[in-house]
Amino acid sequence: MYIACTCVATCILRSLDRCVYLGVSDTHELQLKVLQALTRKFRMSRDVDLLKVYCFPCAMDWFVSEFRRMMIQLVESCPFTYTGADFYALASDALLHSMKRQIALVDQHVAERSASQAGGADLNGVRTFLATLPADHALLQVEVTMQDLEQARAALTPSISEEELRHYKHLQAQFASKGR
C-alpha cells in the first residue's frame, strides 16, 4: 500500500507496507511549474502567460523576460511551506478575483445600457442581456491577470508551518532509514 505522509499519526505509519513522502516544492522554479500546471486551463491576460515561459524560452525575449521577472517575483514571495493545495488555493482565488471583476464590468455595462434606453427601460435583466451576446464577446471572457494572482497570494496563508515541515522531513528520514 502507498500513501502520502502528510498529517498521519506515527502509529498508523508503522503499519503501512510502504510510505512515500511527497514533499513541498523546495525551489521557486518548481513552485512556478506547479502554478503553471494548476492554471493550464485558465485564460490568462497578456501580462500572465505561464505557457510562454516554458514553451518559448528564446522567442519573444522582451515579453518572456518581463513576464518571467514578474512571475518569479510572485513565486519568490511564496514560502517553501506552500503545499500543492496552497497553490491550488492561490490559482482558484486568482480566478475568483477575475470573475468578480468581470461580473462588475457586466453589471456596469447593463446599467449603462438600461440608462440609455428611452425612459430608462429595463433590459429584462442581466440574463437576457448576456443571452444576446456572442460567445466570444469580451464581456464573456474571464482572464486572470497578474494583479489577480498577486491579490490571491497576499491573502493566502500556508497550510503548514516551518515546524510541521521539519517534522515531516524528519518522518521521511526516519522511514527512509528503515527501508520502508
Kindly list the characteristics that best describe this protein.
mainly alpha; Helicase, Ruva Protein, domain 3; 180 residues; 2 domains; 0% strand
Describe this structure in words.
With 180 residues, this protein is mainly alpha-helical. The protein folds into two domains: 1-24 and 160-180, no CATH class; 25-159, Orthogonal Bundle (Helicase, Ruva Protein, domain 3). Helices cover 58% and strands 0% of the residues. The protein is built from eight helices and no strands. It has helices spanning 10-14, 28-38, 50-55, 61-76, 84-116, 125-131, 146-155, 162-177. Helix 2 crosses helix 4 (61-76), helix 2 (28-38) packs across helix 5 (84-116) and helix 5 (84-116) packs across helix 7 (146-155). The N and C termini lie close together (11 Å).
Task: Give the secondary structure arrangement, pairings included.
Elements: H1 10-14, H2 28-38, H3 50-55, H4 61-76, H5 84-116, H6 125-131, H7 146-155, H8 162-177
Shape, principal axes of CA atoms: elongated
Q: Which range does the strand content fall in?
A: under 5%
Give the strand tally. Answer: 0
Structural class comes to mainly alpha
How many structural domains in the coordinates?
2
Average predicted confidence as pLDDT: 76
What pattern of helices and strands is seen along the backbone? HHHHHHHH
- Number of H- or I-type helical stretches: 8
Low-confidence stretches: 51-60
* Span between termini: 11 Å
Q: Architecture of the largest domain, CATH level 2?
A: Orthogonal Bundle
Largest sheet features: none
CATH topology of the largest domain: Helicase, Ruva Protein, domain 3
> Class of the largest domain in CATH?
Mainly Alpha
- Radius of gyration, rounded? 23 Å
The helix fraction, in percent, is: 55-70%
